[in-house]
Amino acid sequence: MYPFIRLAKEFWVHRKASSLGVTDVHVSHHRCWPQDIDIFIEMNNGRILTILDLGRTVLAKRTGLFQALKDNGWGLTMAGCSVRYRRRIKTFEKFRTVSRAIGWDERFFYLDQTIWVGDVCAAQALYRSAVTSKDGIVPTRAILDHLGIIDDSPDLPEWTRNWIDAEGTRPWPPEVRG
Questions:
Q1: CA–CA gap between residue 178 and residue 172 (Å, rounded)
Q2: Domain coverage including residue 94
Q3: Tens digits of pLDDT across the chain (178 residues)
Q4: What distance in Å separates the CA atoms of residue 4 and residue 13, rounded to the nearest whole number?
Q5: Looking at the domain assignment, is residue 102 inside a domain?
Q6: Dist CA 129 CA 169 (whole Å)
Q7: Domains in the chain: how many in total?
Q8: Is 174 within a domain?
Q9: Does 128 fall in a domain?
Q10: Angle 140-147/65-72 helices, nearest 10 degrees?
Q11: Of 81, 79, 127, which Cα lies nearest the Cα of 103?
């Protein structure tokens, strides 16, 4: 089940937080609760993705994206994700998430999110996100214009460009076997 109570807590905690620029960083603090763990008594990999979703949601609110979605009847979707898991998060352990947009192209925003336990990075995810309308994907320039942002995208890191290129070679729909 989606952690609506956690989401409400995040909105409450950050209700007076300052607005952020499109590439600014949002940080949130959490704890691994028993409902987050799997049979190995550590945070479930799916729950990690859900926790990162909370960070992106508050980031969207603080950057003004939520208001732009509301103003235009747009939706928000994830169009791809690549995750690295590098450290287990144990029950009751405190951790923080760091969320930021690292750039965009004509169709997608690219977001880098990390989870930290102390000074150790436990997980990192690269997301490709799109804003949608009844007509399909909304060009990023239209969204940025609505937000009053005239800047071009920062240069995407090489590892991000490599991921985008690799995704471009991936067949869709996937081949059906068996």
A1: 17
A2: 4-169
A3: 788 999 999 999 999 999 999 999 999 999 999 999 999 999 999 999 999 999 999 999 999 999 999 999 999 999 999 999 999 999 999 999 999 999 999 999 999 999 999 999 999 999 999 999 999 999 999 999 999 999 999 999 999 999 999 999 999 898 888 7
A4: 14
A5: yes
A6: 19
A7: 1
A8: no
A9: yes
A10: 110
A11: 127
Q: Are 74 and 132 in contact (CB under 8 A)?
A: yes
- The C-alpha atoms of residue 13 and residue 27 are separated, in whole angstroms, by 11
CATH number at 38 reads 3.10.129.10
C-alpha 14: how far from chain center: 17
Q: What angle do CA 159, 162, 163 make, to 5 degrees?
A: 90
- Single-letter amino acid code for the residue at 72: N
d(CA 55, CA 147): 20
Nearest to 144, CA basis, from 153, 157, 156:
153
Residue 94 lies in a domain: yes
User: Count of alpha carbons within 13 Å of 61, Cβ hemisphere only?
Assistant: 17
> Could you give the dihedral angle defined by the CA atoms of residues 36, 2, 102 and 97, in that order, rounded to the nearest 10 degrees?
-30
Cα dist. 50→54, 57, 61 in Å?
Answer: 7, 11, 17
